[in-house]
Design the sequence.
């Protein structure tokens, strides 16, 4: 009988539950389980930093060791969220500094992190181990110096894709001489050169180092020396590889790589001279992840490398690979699960490479395990999309970006509704979808009907009317995040599906047709949502209510309206008045 | 509270009397001409999705009622694809005709009522949308590329497209990587201004900084006037120029009165991390090496290795 188990037994059992979903379910069983569970939860994930306050988190979960927090909406990656919008981490750090002295892990995404925050982290948590700042900004290398100097037990420092004000490379030298615990270091986003000898010494004295992503400033001729000191590396990112090829550099590199028997992931390769690529052939057969998206190398050289990577699971590459290269990929890499093809020249009017929809079709046919796709191209057809859907019903993520907005099926000049319709119909496990090209409301009807597991949907320049939005909001049962730009969606669908918004994490709509009046109404009627209008033209009150707002961000929250809004963000409130702090 | 105005963003303007959407479900025009009736927008917190609609269908209170359900069952599946295509094409041509919300007048805002008999609402929409202040440089109407293609009046077909903010969806660090690569590999003369190069611009004393794309300018003059517009709310000083002959820079645009008060200097951080005065090197060299910009107070700039005797330098030109 459940009620005769002592708490300690239940706590022991709960400790085996790692997924948040399971823990959330457990905490709903009864009050005593709620209490037991909350005292033993060690990891908390907060998908939207404004959905809950630090105080609420701390009050419910007093013994947390690891926190992951996400801030700005995804479209901030593409400059659609103005500077100073928010997502400041300092209040979280300061609250946790007081209440979680044993905190070990902080992982942040799209948040504003200041040097002050970093210094506070470095001084407040004695057993601090993991700092991961993904796509963050607001700090300088001085902040990194604090982390390096004070976090004696640091294992991971990951700055992936963050914007760091690079004052100097001196921060790395702040790791003390007796510091040996480093397991993972990702400094690829930094510009400045770090002291190479300090880097060498750091690597030499950290025997558990598994992941090292260098920055561009480390030249290729210095790589061999680093690799020789860390043959145990599993993930390695080079710096720039543009030094003119020389026999001694090349042979050193070959030798160094051949000593790395555990290498599984390679990245970097900025400006790589193709002649360097063969230096890696000895490790290719073990490689499962390859990021060549900074390598401006032509297709034949890429194929040479890829053809040796029979165990490749994940490839990021520029469209220099072309259809021919993708065909080779599909024949050599049968284990491929994820493919991302980025555009080398997205702003020119004419294509600069021979990469078309055919490349993706070929990969979908040849790689049975393919489940995750991000593909930039210039032409697409319904026939191709239908083929892809039929080939790969196991797709989980499908993000297609046809570079020209509203480009139709290039063969028939029709919208791409049926093509994407086939994708959602066949790929029943699809969780993430980004659409592009010419699309009418019909595609949304298909999505609403079939995409029952869809969690995230990104739309741009699509649809004809509110009906499109209504199909999505009323049909997609699993929808959590919806981001829309430049679509003719207005008030009706939004207001009719207001309750749906409480079941989602967030909704972003920019350059659509949602009127200020509708935003006000939504804010008034839905107290559990923050309805934020972003408008750089001045207070929405100064314009007629029927005028569309520039940007709208709606998210569910238990923390009420946020207090740190900049002067171009207004919360639509229940008392009908505008509120900005 | 008065009834909100019609939402006529495609510009198919027959400001008809209030239509219930039960009629003419096929054409997208009528969809848009339906007036937003406040009573219909009164929210009922029912379950999301069709259940909600079903419950309310009888009372006709929901916005869509059973009309949408009907549309879902019958209307849409019966529409021949051709009509949908023409509907979509109409959207394009409407944009070109200039009616409706999706078309910004290229000249920037004062032209109203480009459409045929556009309602008052359309004008208001247009003029409000077309009159930005403080908008990021490069934020343009998404339909612009279409317009440029179809307008034969364009004097020169641009080698690169008019850029829409955030499209295609590529992260800034990738864009900057590409820009560097392209400028190195680019041999063709025809290609110019490809790629983008976002740099941050800060100004001493200003509460926030902005980001600009250096590739959207071709000269110091353009950059200067763009910056001036961006930071125009702060005092800008003018001054005589400093310059070396034979170089394309701020020199020809100089000479404003010195009496404007505070003096600012435009500086940039180059690839080596040094702060330099903007204007000394040829434009291309500048864009190749500029990592960020800073508008600093003239008094702070004296240590920047200038050979000129002038104590203050021109920053902003008109």
Sequence:
């Amino acid at each position: 009988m459940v009620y005769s188990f002592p708490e300690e037994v239940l706590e022991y059992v709960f400790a085996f539950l790692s997924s948040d979903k399971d823990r959330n379910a457990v905490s709903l069983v009864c009050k005593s389980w709620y209490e037991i569970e909350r005292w033993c939860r060690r990891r908390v994930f907060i998908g939207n930093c404004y959905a809950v306050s630090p105080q609420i988190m701390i009050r419910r979960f007093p013994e947390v060791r690891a926190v992951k927090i996400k801030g700005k909406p995804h479209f901030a990656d593409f400059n659609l969220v103005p500077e100073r919008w928010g997502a400041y981490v300092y209040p979280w750090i300061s609250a946790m500094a007081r209440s979680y002295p044993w905190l070990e892990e902080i992982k942040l995404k799209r948040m504003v992190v200041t040097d002050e925050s970093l210094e506070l982290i470095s001084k407040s948590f004695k057993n601090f181990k993991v700092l991961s700042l993904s796509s963050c900004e607001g700090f300088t290398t001085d902040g990194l110096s604090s982390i390096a100097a004070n976090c004696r037990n640091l294992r991971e420092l990951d700055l992936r894709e963050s914007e760091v004000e690079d004052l100097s490379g001196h921060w790395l030298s702040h790791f003390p001489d007796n510091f040996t615990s480093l397991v993972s270091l990702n400094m690829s986003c930094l510009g400045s050169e770090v002291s190479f000898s300090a880097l060498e010494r750091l690597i030499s004295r950290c025997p558990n180092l598994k992941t090292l992503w260098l920055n561009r400033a480390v030249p290729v001729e210095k790589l061999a020396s680093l690799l020789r000191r860390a043959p145990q590396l599993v993930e390695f990112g080079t710096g720039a590889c543009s030094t003119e090829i020389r026999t001694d550099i090349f042979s050193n590199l070959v030798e160094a790589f051949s000593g790395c028997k555990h290498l599984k992931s390679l990245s970097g390769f900025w400006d790589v001279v193709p002649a360097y690529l063969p230096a890696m052939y000895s490790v290719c057969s073990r490689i499962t992840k390859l990021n060549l998206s900074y390598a401006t190398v032509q297709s034949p050289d890429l194929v040479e490398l890829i053809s040796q990577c029979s165990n490749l699971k994940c490839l990021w590459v520029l469209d220099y690979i072309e259809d021919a290269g993708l065909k080779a990929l599909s024949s050599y890499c049968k284990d491929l699960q994820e493919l991302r093809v980025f555009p080398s020249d997205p702003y020119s009017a004419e294509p600069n490479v021979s990469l078309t929809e055919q490349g993706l079709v070929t990969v979908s046919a040849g790689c049975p395990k393919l489940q995750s796709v991000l593909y930039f191209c210039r032409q697409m057809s319904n026939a191709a999309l239908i083929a892809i859907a039929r080939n790969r019903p196991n797709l989980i993520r499908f993000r297609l970006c046809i570079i020209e907005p509203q480009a139709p099926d290039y063969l028939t000049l029709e919208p791409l509704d049926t093509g994407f319709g086939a994708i959602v119909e066949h790929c029943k496990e699809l969780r993430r979808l980004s659409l592009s090209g010419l699309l009418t409301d019909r595609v949304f009807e298909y999505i609403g009907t079939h995409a029952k597991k869809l969690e995230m949907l990104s739309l741009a320049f699509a649809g004809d009317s509110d009906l499109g939005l209504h199909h999505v909001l009323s049909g997609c049962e699993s929808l959590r995040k919806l981001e829309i730009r430049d679509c003719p969606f207005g008030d009706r669908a939004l207001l009719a599906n207001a309750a749906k918004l409480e079941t989602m994490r967030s909704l972003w709509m920019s350059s659509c047709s949602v009127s200020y009046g509708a935003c006000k109404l939504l804010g008034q009627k839905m107290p559990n949502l923050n309805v934020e209008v972003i408008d750089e033209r001045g207070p929405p009150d100064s314009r007629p209510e029927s005028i569309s707002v520039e940007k709208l961000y709606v998210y569910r929250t238990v923390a009420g309206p946020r207090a740190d809004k900049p002067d171009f963000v207004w919360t639509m409130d229940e008392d009908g008045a505008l509120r900005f702090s | 509270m008065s009834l909100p105005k019609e939402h006529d963003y495609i510009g198919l303007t027959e400001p008809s009397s209030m239509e219930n959407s039960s009629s003419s479900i096929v054409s997208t025009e009528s969809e848009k001409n339906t007036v937003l009736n406040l009573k219909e927008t009164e929210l009922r917190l029912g379950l999301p999705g069709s259940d909600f609609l079903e419950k309310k269908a009888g009372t006709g209170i929901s916005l869509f009622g059973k009309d949408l359900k009907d549309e879902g069952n019958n209307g849409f599946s019966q529409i021949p694809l051709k009509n949908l295509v023409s509907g979509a094409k109409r959207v394009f041509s409407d944009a070109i005709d200039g009616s409706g919300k999706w078309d910004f007048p290229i000249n920037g805002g004062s032209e109203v009522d480009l459409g045929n008999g556009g309602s008052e609402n359309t004008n208001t929409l247009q003029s409000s949308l077309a009159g930005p202040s403080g908008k990021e440089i490069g934020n343009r109407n998404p339909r612009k590329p279409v317009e440029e293609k179809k307008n034969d009046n364009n004097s020169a077909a641009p080698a690169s497209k008019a850029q829409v903010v955030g499209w295609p969806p590529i992260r800034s660090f990738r864009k900057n990587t590409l820009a560097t690569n392209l400028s190195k590999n680019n041999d063709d003369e025809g290609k110019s201004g490809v790629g983008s190069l976002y740099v941050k611009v800060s100004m001493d004393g200003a509460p926030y900084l902005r980001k600009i794309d250096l590739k959207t300018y071709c000269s110091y003059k353009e950059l200067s006037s763009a910056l001036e517009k961006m930071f125009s709310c702060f005092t800008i000083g003018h001054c005589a120029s400093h310059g070396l002959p034979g170089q394309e820079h701020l020199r020809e645009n100089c000479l404003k009165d010195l009496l404007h008060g505070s003096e600012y200097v435009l500086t940039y951080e180059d690839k080596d991390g040094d702060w330099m005065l903007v204007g000394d090197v040829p434009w291309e060299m500048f864009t190749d090496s500029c990592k960020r910009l800073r508008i600093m107070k003239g008094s702070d700039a004296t240590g920047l290795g200038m050979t000129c005797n002038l104590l203050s330098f021109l920053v902003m030109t008109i």
The mean pLDDT of chain B is 52.
